[in-house]
Amino acid sequence: MALPSIFKRKRGTEEVAAVDLLQKISKRAEDLTTEEQARSFVAIRRIDGALKNRDSRAIFGRRGTGKTHILSYVASDVEGGGEVPIFIDLRTLGSNNSIYSDRSLEAHARATTLIRDLITAIHEELLEKLTHPKSALNTEGMDDAISVLAKSVKSVVVSAEQHDRNAGAKMDEHDAQASADAKLSPFGPEANASGKAGENHQASEEWETTIMGIPRLSVNMGDAYRALDDVARRSRSRIWLLLDEWSSLPVELQPYLADFLRRAVLPVQNLTIQIAAIEFRSAFRVDFDRDRVGLELGSDIAADINLDDYFVYDVSADVALEFFRTLLFKHLQAFAGERELKERDEIAIINSVFSQERVFAELVRASEGVPRDFINILQLAAMRSDQSKIAMNEVRIAAKDWYERDKQRNLDTNERADQLLQWIRDKVIEGKRARAFLLRSSHSDPSIEFLFDERLLHIAKRSYSAKDEPGVRYRVWKVDYGCYVDLINTAKSPTGFLFPDTELSDAGEIEVPEDDYRAVRRAVLDLSEFEKDNASG
User: Fold this and answer.
1) pTM to 2 decimal places
2) Engineering a disulfide at 280: which of 123, 299, 341, 449 sits with its beta carbon 3.0 to 4.6 angstroms away?
3) What's the average model confidence in pLDDT over 95-108?
4) Virtual CA dihedral for 161, 166, 167, 169, nearest 10 degrees?
């Protein structure tokens, strides 16, 4: 039976093979057109609904995990539904954003400039939306409301704490018996003086004014809030404030921008905030004494999406394979443009590009759940294959090349992290013949966090406990594929996940030997040993 006309291909439509498009795939979402972003986006079943509900949230993920692509997708989706997205890349905030990192300036001046620049960026985006021919904003009275928002910039000031201190009574130098002292108490300065002074000699007091502590927001938030609330009410459409590259801001200023959002933006009923950030490079809150500055994750805004948790092959092979198959197919479709792919579905793509299904699986394993790494390794492997199908050896060589080119060089700036990674490789991969290790969840180490940020370590499981240690929680860390790819097919190749000849199930459960406690103890990495080894070395 003939297919309906809707399924028939246009006569004369040019076809293009997948292998010819591999080098054209863009690695960064910001390099794609709006149409290409929409066509290449892969909806993630478990988080797609959360992205579209009206709750404000932070979206975590390391570089290359797709945060920008997700925010672009949300912007496109809500705009298609008649709502108003305001997308702001915080890297480009202000006319001279280097002022934020200039530590020769007082912190309160830097924070003031940062907040004012954000309000200015919101104002400019709203103005552009208002003047667009297809604007979803209600124009009635909106000019005045947006003008009030622009004026509110001047009312935003971050001030530092000021303390006046009595430096003590300075007596005449001829009065040798006079003395004075001053001290600070929890309730303010206290001064004590004793001694004798001649009747013609008078004491004069000196006072010091010092700036102490971390700056706090001291601003009439009502102006900014009322201006935004008026804009949101008049728009008659929900406004989505999408803030990308949060972690590009100096970490010491982030809580003050977050505090502004908490006080002046979150209370606006017709407005949703989504923030894309890197987990260990973000500070949404800082506490001192009884004061809190910033946002409280989970309370003020949701923090239920972490892209680092989803597509690591060793954690959930089936989910990872399905995601990357779809990602490759959709990207190739997007870059085919007006032409049509010769391959009609995802399986045809895999069969056309790779010599075997397991070669594609190895590429997914090597990417460690990071889409940008997946694309880079794929393109390097394709160049080595020279138009033939990509084989296993080409994936492994490309993965090692990408590891040395992109990841390993970041260790040049952190000697301790470099030494720690080499120690982990020796202890875990070569010593235990495993790809992963355990650290207590309560343990925090800046070098571990640095290695995670740079995609040299990966979190396989955020919380794990052994049956013989109730109440003790571990975090399962996985060593990057690039750290051991050169050991594959050698006597030192890792043979299991945490233990030899064991793996993770697709549900993320760890298979452990019967002597659970002893096995777990063998998998725990003691960083104090590293400190001793490093000190003796």
Assistant:
1) 0.81
2) 449
3) 71
4) 170
